[in-house]
């Protein structure tokens, strides 16, 4: 099995953590879509990572689809519940985490533009999405609706999102009023799967 992606992509990290948690051997191919000669677009017409090349040669792309594929392999531990409603709830948590990531990535890219060209309204909208998403996660942790010991798909997605916020210093004060998310992230980051997929410092 081959995983194509970037060491700094949080979507790729989510899939890497899943593979490691399940003990699935895979080759990691470090590739970014915008580099000349990148193989990403050969396997994903949308030119996005991650891309998973299965043992039968089938290419799977988009991290929620890849996550579903990995669960269909039936390899323990299961990261989605067998009961449909419980599995759907895990997907809801994943969607919230991915939505936070989507806003964070847009915010980071906007900040790379020259200051006079940046849209403060756009930046504010992305920060609001991130803040509301984190508040939603904190509330559901308080309601004991997010399990993370051991982690399932939702928790892995949340850990990947928080890792990216810290890595890119997006909304640096996010942890001040969200102690349950801080505790959850701390426990997740101690796991070997998260430690091995921490993005490089530079």
Automatic annotation (TrEMBL):
Start and end residues of each GST N-terminal domain: 1-78
CDD domains: GST_C_6, GST_N_3
GO CC entries: cytoplasm
Domain of life according to the entry: Bacteria
PROSITE patterns, A to Z: GST_NTER
Entries under Pfam families matching the protein: GST_N_2
Protein name: Glutathione S-transferase
């Amino acid at each position: 099995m081959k995983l194509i992606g970037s060491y700094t992509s949080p979507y790729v990290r989510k899939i890497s953590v899943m593979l490691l948690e399940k003990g699935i051997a895979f080759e990691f191919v470090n590739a970014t879509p915008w580099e000349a000669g990148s193989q990403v677009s050969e396997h994903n017409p949308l030119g996005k990572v991650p891309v998973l090349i299965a043992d039968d040669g089938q290419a799977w792309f988009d991290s929620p689809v890849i996550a579903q594929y990995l669960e269909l392999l039936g390899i323990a531990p299961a990261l989605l519940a067998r009961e449909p409603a419980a599995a759907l709830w895990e997907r809801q948590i994943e969607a919230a985490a991915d939505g936070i990531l989507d806003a964070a990535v847009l915010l980071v890219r906007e900040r790379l533009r020259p200051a006079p060209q940046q849209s403060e309204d756009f930046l504010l909208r992305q920060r609001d999405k991130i803040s509301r998403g984190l508040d939603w996660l904190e509330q559901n942790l308080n309601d004991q609706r997010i399990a993370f010991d051991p982690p399932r798909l939702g928790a892995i997605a949340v850990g990947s999102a928080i890792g990216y916020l810290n890595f890119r210093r997006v909304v640096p004060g996010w942890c001040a009023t969200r102690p349950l998310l801080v505790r959850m992230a701390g426990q997740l980051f101690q796991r070997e799967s998260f430690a091995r997929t921490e993005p490089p410092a530079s």
